[in-house]
Write a structure and sequence with these properties.
Elements: E1 22-23, E2 30-31, E3 36-39, E4 45-47, E5 51-53, E6 59-61, E7 65-75, E8 81-90
Parallel strand pairs: 4-8
Antiparallel strand pairs: 1-3, 2-7, 3-6, 5-6, 7-8
Length: about 90
């Protein structure tokens, strides 16, 4: 006869690893060519001057310069407007 109780399996340990999303360079910071500015899922932030969007919606710098953020009105497909955040790299 067994002297220890049977152990059941745990229901923990199934969380996925975090993806480290978010803003990597803030306004006023100097960046180089190809530096990642924002990691995102979907388009929370839109690319502006000298910024390109990657296949996974990551925004990165095309030229050296300083990061700046602006707001812009964007028209949706149904004609309504919404304010979106746009990130630019301005050359110094």
């Amino acid at each position: 006869m067994a002297h220890t109780k049977a152990k059941g399996s745990t229901r923990l340990g199934r969380d996925s690893e975090s993806k480290r999303l978010g803003i990597k360079r803030s306004s006023g910071e100097k960046v180089g060519i190809g530096e990642i500015l924002i990691r995102q899922r979907g388009t929370r932030y839109y690319p502006g001057k000298h910024v390109k969007r990657g296949s996974d919606d990551t925004l990165y710098a095309l030229k050296e310069g300083t990061v700046s953020f602006t707001n812009r009105k964007r028209t949706r497909f149904d004609g309504s407007k919404r304010t979106v955040k746009v990130i630019h790299v301005t050359q110094a």
